[in-house]
Amino acid sequence: MACSSLLKLSASSSSWIAGQQAVNQRPGSAARFPTRRVSVIRAGSYTDELIKTAVRNFSVLACGLIVWYIVLFIVFAFSFVSDIGRLEKSIASPGRGILAIDESNATCGKRLASIGLDNTETNRQAYRQLLLTTPGLGEYISGAILFEETLYQSTTDGKKFVDCLRDENIVPGIKVDKGLVPLPGSNNESWCQGLDGLASRSAEYYKQGARFAKWRTVVSIPCGPSALAVKEAAWGLARYAAISQENGLVPIVEPEILLDGDHPIERTLEVAERVWAEVFYYLAENNVTFEGILLKPSMVTPGAEHKEKASPDTIAKYTLTMLRRRVPPAVPGIMFLSGGQSEVEATLNLNAMNQSPNPWHVSFSYARALQNTVLKTWQGRPENVEAAQKALLVRAKANSLAQLGKYSAEGENEEAKKGMFVKGYTY
Q1: Residue 204: active-site member
Q2: Where does the secretion signal sit in this chain (predicted)?
Q3: Are residues 201 and 331 part of one domain?
Q4: Given 296, 343, 345, 412, which residue is catalytic?
Q5: Is there a catalytic annotation at residue 110?
Q6: What is the pLDDT of residue 423?
Q7: SS3 labels along 236-260
Q8: Same structural domain for residues 356 and 278?
Q9: What is the span of the domain harbouring residue 178?
């Protein structure tokens, strides 16, 4: 608008100057330069003043816009941190933990095959509906990790699974990694893929209702682990965590140290400390906010094939030692994986770790240790759904008590005591 006024002024000023020249100049006489010079000065001064005014106004406007954008950024950043903080407090709340049902379609098919069902989307949907519509589940479960297929599924009545979870005050989460593949140049080890396109996928998952994410990579003690494998695991987790936080998702950081091997518990502690030191180094390098993550570590146990089993008190001692040496107190929650332990073993070990206060919320993020009895009770039969859901509540309540340090294994059935370790397990 200022530019338009300036153009109009220039045009009118030119007309006025031309008129003055005609009046002051007589035929046959020279131009009256002093008068003409005065006229030019008057027009030029006015134009200069307008330009200065426009520049001042533009500067004020630009400064105002900069301040406005800074204020918006601060408000947005504060809001994001506050939302993340509230979310973590919800997931890491007393007496509650995470139900992990993020098995890939292939792994879910293996579970269904164990009870004689085909691996079809209909059967997978039916099983996950059983789990996610269990009445009262939110009393013991604060979050549920879903596979991508499940995140977009609904019940047979048309209700979205994410809405079923919200109704129980359970936060929906999403598995975002794309699985393990061989790591070239390593000692027969693996690395986790899925960083390509992760930002756009995370944004879509958020729109669908997911509020936290999970990325699982593994470290094998019998295979070394090699420095390359440890570094690759840590770097991948750190990049994933940074991308998740950028897209509003709380990242669960999970470098699973596999149970495979016949090594003693001291060797597991040594490797776990090494892995977590590397993980936190790269988390810091990638500017990941520690207050905005959750951890999903393995418990520190002897190898599954070791000649001596460790007691829950011993496992708790070694595991908490590792955590105190490597995990900053800024991290709000430690959600252990079960890793092939029996349902009762996983619960007893968690209970032992909660016999005294910890700097973090120490809880569970179990898959098989919550689902094994449920699956065998269901058997794929509609008439068994209610009984299977009650079995899920039994296991969820047991681990809720363990998170509070109040669990007792008295009255547990034999099925819940059976180990579920599978050598070379993948999912």
Answers
A1: no
A2: none
A3: yes
A4: 296
A5: no
A6: 61
A7: HHHHHHHHHHHCCCEEEEEEEECCC
A8: yes
A9: 93-417
